[in-house]
Protein 1
Amino acid sequence: MEEEVLCDVELPVTSLRLPATYGPGDAQHRLYEYVRPMDDARPAVLIDERFAGWRWARGYVEDVAAAIALAAADERASGRVYNVAQREAYSETQWARMIANAHGWQGELLPVPPAMLPGSLRSDLDERQEYVVSSELIRDELGYEERVSLTEGLRRTIEWERANPPQGAEPDYEAQDRALAQLRDS
């Protein structure tokens, strides 16, 4: 589809490949699974071990919006394809640690085999394929850069997640405690 639309010389089209976008208004609540147990002073946050080292291109909502505005306003973007993402694609464990640091939480991040995890903590993503892209083209051609620091974006998102918890997302701490005990006994 992207190639077909871009081939139409009469249509000024720019294709933006967007990252996993986090921040206020994130309907997927990408940080909530970390923020809630941190707010509840849990001793550990459990991470599906298949994804502990998995990397994903991310972007803060205001930065992604700025990239869209740049591409829409600049004629040089016509007919181009740009990846939009933060420069670094962090592993899930690195990402969770950054959230913990912005939050002020000092607990453990523990990779856990999926069979030990409560269903709500098992990921259904395909861990065989990371989503890592370079955003250098939009940076070089259109001058894109992040306007909100990573730490500030995480802080704003944490505050938003606290004020806007998803409905029906009560953590099953009993199941998590069983998994934690089983992990520590093995």
Protein 2
Amino acid sequence: MSAHGPMPRSAWIFPALAVILFAATTALRFTFTPSPAGLVFAAALLVILFGTVFAAVHHAEVIAERIGEPYGTLVLTLAVTVIEVALIATIMLG
């Protein structure tokens, strides 16, 4: 819990949805196809990706608030850097 109140539901729901989507697409061997179903899948994936990134930044912000300066700033910087590197690596591999 942060000093501003309880953790928002979106900070837990979006990461859970990302795990469920990953498990379902892996189990069903679903791949993106340039079709209406593929576009719906891509749109859902984009919404879940943005929600998950914002949830990760929120969690990093809560940790940064608890540990204070200057380490809190380093935690936030590291969290954003890890997210950016993961996205770039995914694009390069995929």
Protein 3
Amino acid sequence: MSVEEGSPVRRRLFRSVLALVVLVTAAVVLPQSPAAAEVRGPWQIQGIQSRKCVDVPNGTFNNVQLTIYTCKDKGNQLFYIQEIYNGEYNIWNIQTGKCLTVLNAETTNNTPVIQYACNIGLNELWTLPADLTIRNVKSGKCLTVQNNGTANGAKLLQFTCNGGQNQIFTWARGIEGN
């Protein structure tokens, strides 16, 4: 049986090969899905200037501004990180399941860092460079303790990275389930 140019058999074969090429290309080019990426933690995120931990005060609602507070190894101070794209991470609280997010995807200084339902927007993706800052992917600005605060309840916001001690955080292994 010969397959003539333009025949239904040849068109089906061409479509099958084309579909296979598209699938293979998609598998190679598309980023790893969040479900497949490794989750690490839980961690306490501690400011080196204050020796206090990033804290989710007052509940599980969206738009709660994050603060620092005396470290207690409780769920509102424990976070998981998950690489979403190459070197870009979601950071979310184990008690609320919500992500560290820059309010309204703003790129200006002094914008609050809040918790919000995770949706992999650029305003909730962070890089973790070797200088121990936590940098927002969309704005390029650093997680910062407002006004160099060291007291419980000092608010977290984004600000231009400047090497200040209020922008440097360490990660300590937390105990899950508290």
